[in-house]
């Protein structure tokens, strides 16, 4: 009896670095190959978000997170060639917090079967 796993959702956490660009392109290729949904994810440090929220900026945390989500989607469309994006179902997710626990949360929350990410520029 042959057992095969069906990959239906791939999580691609990113810090938007050059190394993350290649990992994201690989995630897109795999998503196409397995006809899986792709979740591109970015964790914003709480201090970075906090500096953009408040009376001086007239922005709420939800507005900041929404802006980061839009930039994440734009980044994805810039670094992943159109031929890889053409047939993808893409979801851009953003969380506020430390990257490692945020990625674990995103994997569980999104129901990811597979995670593709770069590590320390390698």
Would you mind describing this structure in some detail?
By secondary structure, this protein is α/β, with parallel strands linked by helices. It contains five helices and four strands; from the N terminus they run E-H-E-H-H-H-E-H-E. The chain has helices at residues 18-34, 46-50, 61-79, 82-85, 99-110; strands spanning 9-13, 37-44, 90-96, 114-115. It has a four-stranded parallel beta sheet with strand order 3-2-1-4, with helices on both faces. Helix 1 (18-34) links the parallel strand 1 and strand 2. The longest helix is centred in the middle third of the chain and has 19 residues, at 61-79. It is globular, with a radius of gyration of 15 Å.
Number of DSSP strands?
A: 4
> Terminal Cα separation, in Å?
38 Å
Fraction of residues in helix: 40-55%
The parts where pLDDT drops under 50 for at least 5 residues are none
Spell out the helices and strands N to C: EHEHHHEHE
Q: What is the CA-based Rg, rounded? A: 15 Å
Largest sheet: 4 strands, parallel
Which strand-content bin applies to the residues? 15-25%
Instruction: Enumerate how many helices there are, as a single number.
Output: 5
Mean pLDDT: 84
User: In which order are the strands of the major sheet placed?
Assistant: 3-2-1-4
